[in-house]
Design goal:
single chain, 411 residues, alpha+beta, Nucleotidyltransferase, domain 5, Actin, Chain A, domain 4, 6-stranded mixed beta sheet, 5-stranded mixed beta sheet, globular
């Protein structure tokens, strides 16, 4: 039977986990979308407070958090028994070892699942597009991780990662709002209606700032960004000549809790994502990550990678991001830093067949519906023999089958 033939219909569909820093996608293999997308957090039994899964203190703390969280997924959102289903874990190649080992321990020892298939998120994202070569950029909550994949093989020597994601935009948006209302107070010289808002803007819940960012903010084009930067230096916006003035986008009136109302200026709405494109002395920006990753690959890989750029992750759904990235890339390749290294000027972005926030989950669901599930899964018996999860970065697992069988016999 071919490797990618579908599994038997009598086999129960595997469950697919994609546990992100901010949100978790959970569903069944073979389905086009996850059954639920919920925050990666759980109510602590001891303190009664809501805690993110990735805020663990040690291994035992992480174990307790994962037990409660996975129990919630199985028995509230899926309503299936863990023992009856195989498991597919969609994870990043840079996932901490303590997290993947503890997750396997929870699934095998507490929930007694039969097998687990670990699939790399960047690689399986390409399966949703039917291609084997691409430059995958996962822009999530904490960081943006870029890994080139050439003919189905991740080029780990060219990976890039920077804290340019939703959290950076979140902080910029909050800081800009605080500064905006403080300036209103100074200009009024008296107690202004926005005074109470400025006093409490720092205490706004993260969920409110996130909602403002997702629903009201966007990425502006490069021309407007350059004009805003020039206006801040030369006070261009105060000139009387209407041809030189920058027309702001409309302000956003946002209601909090049905009582409080705050105004989000149009300039803040389109400038908070500039954190992705600001350069420092080390040229650490999102467009530079793409170009540096392409340069670090061999010459024959560069053009195919540049023509197959794939954006995944929730933050990549921001309006205007792809267009702005394309503008920045075409501008940067003409600068002194990259002019001699690029012999082409074509960059193409793929359009995902699904929403970018669960593109990696869909790739895992595709693999979970094939015979790869049977061939490559880590069974419970093998896990109890090794007492750990085989890891590509550990030399103890990169040995011949004979040596592995001898080790299992010794154990």
């Amino acid at each position: 039977m071919p490797l990618f033939d579908c599994i038997s219909l009598s086999e129960k569909h595997a469950v697919v986990f994609d546990i992100g820093t901010r949100f978790t996608k959970f569903g069944f293999a073979g389905e086009p979308s996850p059954r639920c997308i919920i925050p990666s957090e759980v109510k602590c039994a001891e303190s009664g407070k809501i805690r993110p899964i990735h805020s663990y203190k040690n291994e035992s703390d992480l174990y307790a958090l994962l037990v409660d969280f996975i129990h919630l997924l199985y028995f509230k959102h899926a309503l299936v028994s863990p023992k009856d289903r195989r498991v597919v874990i969609v994870e990043s190649l840079l996932c901490p070892t303590i997290f993947r080992d503890t997750l396997a321990k929870v699934l095998f020892r507490h929930f007694e699942v039969s097998s687990i298939l670990y699939v790399p998120s960047h690689l399986v994202s390409l399966s949703t597009l039917g291609i084997s070569t691409g430059l995958i950029i996962d822009i999530g909550y904490q960081e943006a991780i870029l890994i080139p994949v050439y003919e189905g093989v991740p080029v780990l020597s060219s990976w890039q990662a920077q804290p340019l994601a939703a959290l950076a935009v979140h902080r910029r948006l909050k800081d800009d709002l605080v500064e905006y209302y403080k300036n209103i107070e100074k200009e009024s010289g008296e107690k202004h209606e926005g005074n109470k808002i400025s006093d409490n803007i720092v205490d706004l819940p993260d969920s409110v700032i996130e909602d403002i960012r997702v629903r009201g903010c966007f990425v502006t084009n490069r021309e407007r960004a350059q004009r805003f930067a020039l206006a801040d230096k030369t006070d261009l916006s105060d000139k009387t000549d209407s041809s030189d003035k920058i027309k702001d986008v409309p302000d956003l009136v946002y209601r909090i809790g049905g009582k409080r109302i705050i105004t989000i200026p149009g300039k803040i709405r389109e400038s908070c994502h500039e954190v992705f494109f600001e350069y420092d002395n080390d040229y650490l920006s999102l467009p530079n990550m793409i170009l540096d990753a392409i340069i670090s690959c061999s010459v024959d890989m560069r053009k195919p990678l540049a023509a197959n750029i794939v954006l995944t992750g929730g933050t990549s759904m921001t309006h205007g991001l792809k267009y702005r990235l394309l503008q920045e890339l075409k501008h940067l390749i003409n600068t002194e830093r990259y002019k001699e290294k690029f012999k082409f000027d074509t960059f193409k972005f793929h359009k995902m067949i699904t929403k970018e926030n669960y593109g990696s989950w869909l790739g895992g669901a595709i693999f979970g519906a094939t015979d790869v599930m049977m061939v490559r899964s880590l069974t419970k018996e093998a896990y109890l023999g090794f007492k750990c999860v085989p890891d590509w970065s550990s030399l103890i697992h990169n040995r011949s089958n004979k040596e592995k069988s001898q080790q299992q016999h010794t154990l």
